[in-house]
Amino acid sequence: MGVANLIPGVSGGTMILAMGLYTEFIASVADVTAFRFSRRRLQFLAVLGLFAAGTIVGLAGVILYLLFHHTVAMYSLFIGMTLGGAPLLMKLLRPIRSDVVVAAVAGLGLMVGVFMLRETGQMPHNTGMDFVSGVVGSTTMVLPGISGSYMLLVLDQYDRVVGTIEELKEAVKGRDMQQLGGVLRIVIPVGLGVVVGIVALSNALKFLLHRYERVTIGVLLGMLIGSVLGLWPLGRAPSEDALGRRDLSELVSFAEQHGILLADVETVAGVSAEILGGWSQRGKTGYGAGSIAMAGVMVVVGFCATSMLSRRGASFGHASA
Q1: What is d(CA 213, CA 232) in angstroms, rounded to the nearest whole number?
Q2: DSSP letters along 35-90, please?
Q3: What digits encode the pLDDT tens for the residues 172-212?
Q4: pTM (2 decimals)?
């Protein structure tokens, strides 16, 4: 779940569902947030939460690095991993009837709307948006098929929020109180949003899955399929936050790799501006045959990885039951 929640387009909820533990997860979160405690619920959430949090902290820098230097390959992998969760949800919906089809179309339409919202303009980066990011990220990360990291990407908050994890580690390690204070101004509202989102969604989802299970899963299936829209284009321009977290030599190497000519600048801000300015012209060249082939391979790899996990998880769930 920790790895999945770092990757835009891949749902932590899908990973838990694939392992046959989703119902227990939702029930545990709903009970604990409603102050109904039991030893079993607390143990389950403690183990899951500790390992997920440790993975997020440990791998945040790695994911950001790969997204920056291998954008096409990584987003192709994300598309495959996202679509790999669809067979599992479709299996839960058999036999497929008209109510499920309508629900899936509604979910797809919702994600198309989110995608269009992203294309209409730039999202702000402020405390209010940090809180919204926490709410959206937490609610979607527990939904099968809907990625919290993907929604942060749609809201143009992914590099800001995930990059802050790396900055927090650096501030604590270096005991830099000034840097720590700046990081906490982002971490605290995001954290509050996460708590609010989890409390609200877990109880609502427990009710919906109990009363309207097939329709709810149908909506989730449509949202999963529609979520790949936001992962396109594969070779998107890097964000200002992503560029600002790289050193000068890394940025120069990145520009050379993508055929962007640089002026005689010697600062991170200067090179970042040159890269963003030259990206649109560079984008007109399109993708080469090698990039297209690699993208296809990575889509297949991602799809097979999630599908295999789903099948093994279903077997594990049956065996443990």
Answers
A1: 31
A2: T---HHHHHHHHHHHHHHHHHHHHHHHHHHHHHHHSHHHHHHHHHHHHHTTHHHHH
A3: 888 878 878 888 888 899 989 988 888 888 888 888 888 88
A4: 0.68
Paired tokens of 58:
């440990």
Q: Tell me the two tokens of residue 197.
A: 């989102």
From CA 256, how far away is CA 250, in angstroms rounded?
Answer: 10
> How do residues 26-82 score in pLDDT, each as one tens digit?
888 888 888 888 999 999 999 988 988 888 888 878 887 887 888 788 888 888 887
CA distances from 21 to 3, 122, 223, 275, 286 (A): 17, 38, 21, 45, 43
Q: In this prediction, what percent of the chain has a pLDDT beyond 70?
A: 82
Amino acid at 3: V
With tokens 């479709």, the residue in question is 90
Count the residues in the chain.
321
Specify the residue for token string 């992962």: 231
Cα–Cα distances (Å) from 124 to 39, 114, 132, 247, in that order, read: 42, 16, 11, 25
Q: Is it true that the peptide bond before 233 is cis, omega within 30 degrees of 0?
A: yes
Cis peptide bond upstream of 8, omega within 30 = no
Asked if residues 279 and 260 have their Cβ atoms less than 8 Å apart, the reply is yes
pLDDT tier at 98 (50, 70, 90 boundaries)?
very high
From CA 82, how far away is CA 225, in angstroms rounded? Answer: 8
